[in-house]
Amino acid sequence: MSTTTTLVFGASGQLGQCLQHVAQERTLTSLVFLPEEQANILNAEALQAVFQQYQPAYVINCAAYTAVDKAEDEVEIARKVNRDGAENLARLCGKHNATLIHISTDFVFAGTGNTPLLETDEAAPISVYGLTKLEGEQVIPALTSQYFILRTSWLYSEYAGNFVKTMLKFGREREEMKVIWDQVGTPTYAIDLAGCILTIIEQQNQQYGIYHYSNEGLTSWYDFAVAIFELSGLPTRTLPIRTAEYPTKATRPAFSVMDKSKAKAQLGVAIPHWRESLKVCLSRLEA
């Protein structure tokens, strides 16, 4: 790999921190991590200055509005970050001949089917978050041809706030937990996703387009919680409940398992099963 510069926006978030971790493991020194305070993707003028300074070959957009329920009330804020921010980066990538790697979500789908979702399946979001992420996907191809859009799901890691860390906290505090069993998807260890992103860059892959990336397998939130407690040795009783028993402002996809065949074939990545990756994450959290 050449010493071309990669800019990482949203570097202080969960995936940004995982990218820093994996880059250190792989001794990659060409990544520049830019937290929001230093490089806000909504400030086009400041972004222009950053691009001029670094002349990046790659840009990774980890910045996103991900508060799914709050987005129902904060539509314009979510749209600014998820659509306008992606537009700003894509425009500059087009001007500077840089490749954009943009992170999207399984929430672009309605989740009403029961077979793994392909990249070519119709996107029909049922939440503001999903809609604004889809709008972000849609603005990119008009501004640059050099892009990878990676849709992922149920992201967790030892960094930032996420379902695994929340379950561990509650599991230590409570004897019993009620968790939804009728939403099915695939957890994704953000360290694995970070590895996929850096492999694209290391291999200078040019098979641009939309890809699905999560861990292998499928599970419900209930079974995910059971696995977390079991592998952590926590005696917490886990009770399955329906989505209707735990109402939220935003509607979630009932089935959002994504087919990863394209990513495995064209990105050359091996994808671990979600339970194996969960073991790795838990071992690091306990270390």
Automatic annotation (TrEMBL):
<dbReference type="InterPro" id="IPR029903">
    <property type="entry name" value="RmlD-like-bd"/>
</dbReference>
<comment type="similarity">
    <text>Belongs to the dTDP-4-dehydrorhamnose reductase family.</text>
</comment>
<keyword id="KW-0560">Oxidoreductase</keyword>
<keyword id="KW-0521">NADP</keyword>
<dbReference type="GO" id="GO:0005829">
    <property type="term" value="C:cytosol"/>
</dbReference>
<dbReference type="InterPro" id="IPR005913">
    <property type="entry name" value="dTDP_dehydrorham_reduct"/>
</dbReference>
<dbReference type="InterPro" id="IPR036291">
    <property type="entry name" value="NAD(P)-bd_dom_sf"/>
</dbReference>
<feature type="domain" description="RmlD-like substrate binding">
    <location>
        <begin position="6"/>
        <end position="285"/>
    </location>
</feature>
<comment type="pathway">
    <text>Carbohydrate biosynthesis; dTDP-L-rhamnose biosynthesis.</text>
</comment>
<comment type="function">
    <text>Catalyzes the reduction of dTDP-6-deoxy-L-lyxo-4-hexulose to yield dTDP-L-rhamnose.</text>
</comment>
<protein>
    <recommendedName>
        <fullName>dTDP-4-dehydrorhamnose reductase</fullName>
        <ecNumber>1.1.1.133</ecNumber>
    </recommendedName>
</protein>
<dbReference type="GO" id="GO:0008831">
    <property type="term" value="F:dTDP-4-dehydrorhamnose reductase activity"/>
</dbReference>
<dbReference type="Pfam" id="PF04321">
    <property type="entry name" value="RmlD_sub_bind"/>
</dbReference>
<dbReference type="GO" id="GO:0019305">
    <property type="term" value="P:dTDP-rhamnose biosynthetic process"/>
</dbReference>
